[in-house]
Amino acid sequence: MATADSISELSSSSPPPTADLLVLVTAMLPEQFEALLTNLAAVFPMEGLLIASESPLPAHVPEKLRVIAAPPANAGWSLTAPDFMNAYELGQESQARAVLMLGPGAESLGAGGLRLLANAVLAGGVDLAVPRYSLPPHAGMINSAVLYPLTRALFATRARFPLAPDLGLSIRMAQRLATLGQHALPLDQGEPLLWPVAEAAVAGFTIDEFDVGPRSLPQPIGGDINSILARVTGSLFADIEAKAAYWQRARRTPPARRGLHEEPLKDGAADVPRMVEAFKFAYSNLLEIWSLVLPPHSLLGLKRLSAMSVSEFRMPDTLWARIVYDFLVAYRQRTINRGHLLGALIPLYLGWVAGHINLTASGVSAESHIEALAAAFEAEKPYVVARWRWPDRFNA
Amino acid sequence: MMIDFTATMLQQGRIVIPFPSYSENVSIWHQISDALHVSIYRVLSLLIAVLPGILAFFVALAIFAVIGKVISVVLRWLLKAFDFDARMARGGEWTSSSSPTALVARITFWLFVLLGLLIGVSAFDTSYAVGTALSFSLLPYLTHGVGAILILIVGTLIARFLARSVLIGAVNAQLQYARFLSLGVKWLVLVLTAAMALEHLEIGGAIVDLAFSILFGGIVLTLSLAVGLGSRDLVSRSLESQLDRGERGVPPAAPPQPPPAETIRHF
Questions:
Q1: pLDDT at A242 over 80
Q2: Rounded distance, CA B187 to CA B158, Å?
Q3: What angle do CA A393, A148, A32 make, to 5 degrees?
Q4: Is pLDDT above 60 for A220?
Q5: Which residue of B has its CA nearest to A140?
Q6: Overall pTM > 0.80
Q7: DSSP symbol at A139
Q8: Domain co-membership, A214 together with A277
Q9: How many domains does chain A contain in total?
Q10: Taking CB atoms and an 8 Å cutoff, what residues of chain A touch B161?
């Protein structure tokens, strides 16, 4: 073990040292950073590894590990445009062949997962290495309900976590994302989210997914579900709108290569009655706004749902897929104010979550339900393409 | 002496009573017909006097519409040649459903139509004043009318926007009186808009101010009562707990036990 002093001397040198792999770590607590550094030192050879982070150096770090200071970026729960810009800039300066980006909570990742992500991009065959986490059944619900099925259906990729906080990037992928981030940064008053999976698909880069085991996903601080759902969904919708020329062409999703696996359900009760109540309350108040966005067939489906009891409450996959697609089209068409639109989606999302939990409680595996939902999104893709081209044709 | 002279002249038949006369020889229908003839004559005279103004209005509108169309077509062509749309897209996210070129061309066209409208109204104004021999100007009333219409349109849009914002926010916050709150906000803005439009048109004077104050105050009071009564239990519980703490003189009680850990994680 070396002391922090020796590391800081190393990091203060003006020209950044060269390395094969640059690991960019977002801001985290010293003890978390120390655990992560230990993991990294155990997995990668020291001479080819360079770590950049804005976190303060911990008291003890593995010997010969090279750590440099990264420019300050966001300290949020997800990777944003400044992170990707920093990754490319530092990667270029250190002449790295690949970049491994690790988000908050990355110390919970196993050494095997880190190795898989880094080796995939270092070997040269993969441009974007995406992790597949083993999460409890009811974790990452927005990802399961909207982000994954929508990305899979439109961009023909099976990346289970399109907004993963950890990524392996080839240097050309890092460059592409940095350029995208430069364009996106002045347009967003906050820190814009980027969608690496969709970007790699459009660029024709190779994407691969790796099982990295369990991980504690960072949670947004101070943001309630309303604001975060609106931010994430709005960003994805905007990205899909920008890439409309790509996804409107028919593409076949590659077959699944991995079996379904998930963490067991832990103790604790999900408040399904509250969510069902929220949906029913919204149905009696927001129907006028929903009717501006949704076709009569979907409204009829919602009416049936509003009459269901809590125990039998289930939202059909096809109905949810069409609802998300209709909101996507309305986002593009600006049928109503975009803030209102995304706000009106929240009770529907809660309805889907309630149905999903009821389904898993009845013995259906959560992962198999999410895969079935993604398949429904794929089956309904012609619907969104038709509505995108002819928005007034409701019963396409 | 004057009376004698008149009597003499009448006897000699030299004085003729001017038309219209109310002598018993002329029928009532004749008098109505004459009155109608006079009024038709007056209206036709006025129409003939203002006809050049009306024609000038339409000619000015047509000429400026044509000029606007030509300039917008030329502008559209020039902007396309300079790749204006692509430049705008590079400069930032273009979120409108129309392209920047189409928007610029459309705005130019309508500006010219508006200019033609103003010039036409001005010409009509002049001919009307000449025809009626009155120092009358229609333009200020027209501009006030247009202003009032704009106030109404903008007010209605703002009312709808705020009503939806409040409704969605309140529904997502599970407030039971969400719809009532939304309606209250909508009518507050609509009443304010109507009062502003009437004030702009200078109609009603103090009555509008008074009516607005009563209505606005009434709506605010109704909303306050509704919200206050709706959250009566919450307020009383809060006050009771504060009083208890004050009487006991002890620090606040331990925080309530957290609900059973939820296994749902949205992110």
A1: yes
A2: 11
A3: 150
A4: yes
A5: B267
A6: no
A7: B
A8: no
A9: 2
A10: 337
By residue range, what is the domain housing residue A159? 2-247
Q: Closest CB to B264: pick one of A138, A238, A282.
A: A138
ipTM: 0.83
Q: Is the pLDDT of residue A264 over 80?
A: no
Please give, rounded to a whole number of angstroms, the shortest distance from the CA of B184 to a CA of chain A. Answer: 15
Average confidence score pLDDT of chain A = 83
Touching check for B264 and chain A: CB below 8 Å? yes
* Two tokens, residue B134: 């009155």
pLDDT in tens, B198-246: 888 888 777 777 887 888 788 888 877 777 776 666 667 666 766 665 5
pLDDT band at A151 (very low <50, low <70, confident <90, very high): very high
Q: Give the residues of chain B that fall short of pLDDT 50.
A: 1-3, 5-6, 9-10, 13, 16-18, 92-93, 249-261
Q: How close B102 comes to chain A (CA, Å)?
A: 17
CATH of the domain at A20: 3.90.550
The chain B residue lying nearest A350, using CA atoms, is B266
Whole-number CA gyration radius for chain A: 22
Judge whether A213 and A261 are in contact, CB under 8 Å. no
Phi-psi region of A10 (alpha: psi -120 to 50; beta: other; left: phi over 0): alpha
Q: Which domains does chain B have, with CATH numbers?
A: 19-137 (no CATH), 138-241 (1.10.287)
Contacts of A140 in chain B (CB under 8 A): 265-267
Measured in angstroms, the CA of B223 and the nearest CA of chain A are apart by: 18
Q: Which amino acid is at A274?
A: R
Q: How many helices (DSSP H) and strands (DSSP E) are in chain A? A: 16, 9
Which of A139, A268, A347 is closest, CB to CB, to B260?
Answer: A268
CB atoms closer than 10 angstroms to residue B141: 13
* CB contact (8 A) between residue B260 and residue A278: no
Helices A317-333 and A296-306 pack at an angle, to 10 degrees, of: 130
**Candidates B93, B97, B172; nearest CB to A343:** B172
Measure A278 CA to nearest chain B CA, in Å. Answer: 7
Instruction: Enter the tokens of residue A361.
Output: 């409680």
Least CA distance to B265: which residue of chain A? A139
The answer to whether residues A14 and A132 belong to one domain is yes
Residue A253 within a domain: no
Q: How crowded is residue A98: how many other Cβ atoms within 10 Å of its Cβ?
A: 27
Distances (CA, A) of A222 to A76, A228, A362: 11, 10, 34
Structure-token match 């009083």, residue found: B243
Distance CA A6, CA A140 (A): 40
Between A29 and B98, the more confident residue is: A29
Residue A350 has pLDDT above 90, yes or no: yes
